[in-house]
Amino acid sequence: MKIAISSDNHLDVNQVDPAQALAAQAKWLLEQQVGAYFFLGDLFNNFQKTRAYFTALQARVGSQIMIRYLAGNHDQLTGVTAAQLEQRLAPEYFHQAFWDVPGTDWRIIGNNGWYDYSFSNLAVSPAAVAQWKKVYWIDGSITQAESDPVRMARVMVQVKAQLQAAQAAGKRVIFVTHFVPAEALVPPLPAHLTTPRQQRFGQMFNAMLGSQHLGALLLQTPQVKRVVSGHLHGEFAPQTLGAATYYNPAVGVRRRPGEWQRTTFMEQWAYRTLVWNLR
């Protein structure tokens, strides 16, 4: 079974025509003879547009390819609440779901993920981080009735249960999520952040990346062999931590220096998309 995985396409931010992207992606996936395509979040700044896109993509490729997607923070900015995202909102929506790859012992487990500030030295002051987020961070507009650490604690319960079920079933696991799943994947703060204000901003940025607690859980679960995430943009080499290798197939934002390695959106998307033949 051949699968493909992508993340962070940001069609609206990259000013890509959705109809053209959908047709081109469907054509490419069919030509590659992919059996399943997983998208790990951040397609639009509106969940309803993201859901409609993948419903249309599934219809376009038909029964030849299974389409599944997660919601990144950008998808959650409008058109959905955090509580609604815990429901099965569409057949293609892959949060709190798994898929056993036919003819193999592989299980792909999906969870949107979240963050709890634990990649930052400001984690000891969660109220201050939350207040900064409301004022300066795009995620401040996301509708959720709980704090970020509480939301991430719920993610941990979900993922732990999924991993335990996979272990009981004798499965090798590919875990897919949007947010950064291990502290070792977080790049060092840029050297040009020299003033206390700049360094504080950098620490606030790190606070919104993911959770070191999820990383510890994955590290303690030897059945997890591959982990794929997005959220961070750029070209990152795969890293092996414990029994698992970690990958990032984020397309990124064209206007930001260093995020694109190719000229056009489809060239960048094809270059960054992971394609694996699972046996």
Automatic annotation (TrEMBL):
Domain Calcineurin-like phosphoesterase: 1-234
Pfam families associated with the record: Metallophos (PF00149)
GO molecular-function term, one example from the UniProt record: hydrolase activity
Protein name: Phosphoesterase
Taxonomic source organism: Limosilactobacillus ingluviei
